[in-house]
Amino acid sequence: MEGVNARIANIQSRIIALQTQQATTATTAARTSESGSSSSASFASQLQGAIAARNGPEAGQTYKLNAKGIPEDLIAYGNGKIPANALEQVGGTRHKLWAPAAEKLTQLIDDARRDGVKIGITDSYRPYEEQVDLARRKGLYSQGGLAAKPGTSEHGWGMATDLDLNPEALAWMRKNGDRYGFVENVKRESWHWAFRPNT
Known about the structure:
Order of helices and strands: HHHHEEHEHEHEE
Structural class: alpha+beta
Number of helices: 7
Low-confidence stretches: 23-61
Oligomer: single chain
Helix content: 40-55%
Strand content: 5-15%
């Protein structure tokens, strides 16, 4: 049964990736179409495509979250056991997150850069073995340390990132992060930002 669930989750994550590619392709096609097409239907179609591409998968509600806010397409894998092909790279970095989170974080970093603010990434998806090692080295958060109990980390779902933020970047994140679905939700960790998509 676990194998079947894992396969279903893998297929769902690939569907999300394909839908994202289709939205991007539609937007590119709309931009390169003949500028002479001025009918209101054509304009509305192009506008809708651009909005969908700008908003990413959230606009089409192509994924579901469970009651705890965890993507249903990742549940079958388990926390910290998500295969690489179910994650997406954040911009040109080596970091990976759940695809909608990666897309929004890439957009956030690009928009911050346009505002003259540099936001770096120090951590992203965290496999279970790394969660165990981190808990051993830094202690559990519940006991005054800095690590979640292995198997419960938001990083283990590809739903959280640790950012490299100077004071200006932290202020920018606190002002703008929620527009991209990112929230600062760990009191002692101003660098930890969790993805909370609007569903």
